[in-house]
Amino acid sequence: MTLGIDIGGTTITLGLVRGTEVVQKSSVPSFPQDATVEETMDYLARQVEQIFVPAVEKIGIGVPSIVDPVRGIVYDAMNIPSWKEVHIKEILEKRFGVPVFVNNDANCYALGAASKVEGNTVVTVTLGTGTGVGIVTGGKLFCGAHCGAGEMASIRYAGRDYESYCSKKYFTGKGITDTRKAAKEADNGSEQAKALFSEFGAHLGEFLSVVMYAYDPDTIVLGGGIAHTFRHFSESMWDSLRNQFPYNTVLDDLSIRVMPEAELALVGAASLN
User: Fold this and answer.
1) Beta bridge partners of 24
2) Which end of the chain has fewer surrounding CB within 10 Å, N or C?
3) Strands of 73-75's sheet in order across
4) What is the DSSP string of 141-174?
5) CATH code, domain with 130
6) Residue 79 pLDDT grade (very low, low, confident, very high; cuts 50, 70, 90)
7) Tally of domains in the chain
8) Which of 97, 72, 105, 87 is closest to 38 using CA atoms?
């Protein structure tokens, strides 16, 4: 059995994983923005203690950051200000006495999602507090030299970057803190809410055109909390993607799946080695 951990910008999810099945799961708020490294690691260890059982043989962790997966060091984590260089593998191995493996959170989600879909090249895009991209080709994770192959949302776009327009940051910038509530308003006929999601989809379509140019995937999987509202931005997303990416025959073969299940990140983290 493996303990999988997904550290997000707002939530930390932990799960006991057997094979590809999450048999027990818990979620807690993520670290306070002003927490020190020591405080965050103590907090994380206490959450692990709550779910850890003797049958756990290893721990796999996904973090929103550039990672050295060999040494298990996290660098400059997004949304965790104190994490400039954290030797998370060393710290947790000393505390729990089992091997610890660390990778980017989007990569962990990609591993979990790719195990559920067909396709030789699967790219996942998580639409949450931030925007994460994971690439799995031939059944193997492609990380790049520093686990940064999927950090495409940091590319400059419309005066800021893609993440500012393809994550919760877009909605909070419009004064919206609950995207599911906004989706219900759109369901009830709110033209303002409909326009909000339509604009979001247009931005996402432009981002997906960059993904297409970079990786030529046969499958794109959308995850994260905003994926639950896909019905409201799918049309504008496809329109924008077709407008920005000129190879229609390629897009005709492209499959875009929506898989927002948090368990997939845990399954992926648990499969790290």
Assistant:
1) 16
2) C
3) 66-68, 73-75, 85-86
4) EE--TTS-TTGGGGSEETTEEHHHHSSHHHHHTT
5) 3.30.420.40
6) confident
7) 2
8) 87
Residue 230: domain span: 117-259
Residues 55 and 130 in one domain: no
Q: What's the one-letter identity of residue 123?
A: V
- Report pTM: 0.87
| Nearest alpha-carbon partner for 154 in 210, 233, 218, 86 | 210
For residue 148, pLDDT beyond 90: no
Secondary structure element (H or E) that encloses residue 56, with its range: none
Place of tokens 């994550």: 167
Query: Between vectors from CA 178 to CA 40 and to CA 135, what angle results, nearest 5°?
Result: 65
* Residue 128 shares a structural domain with residue 251: yes
pLDDT at 89 over 90: yes
Amino acid at 18: R
Question: What is the C-alpha R_g of the chain?
Answer: 18
Token readout for 213 is 């140019």
Same domain, 123 and 244: yes
Using DSSP, state whether 70 is helix, strand or coil. Answer: coil
Same domain, 162 and 229: yes
Question: Can you tell me the distance from the alpha carbon of 51 to that of 14, in angstroms, rounded to the nearest whole number?
Answer: 8
Q: Alpha-carbon distance 263 to 253, whole Å?
A: 28
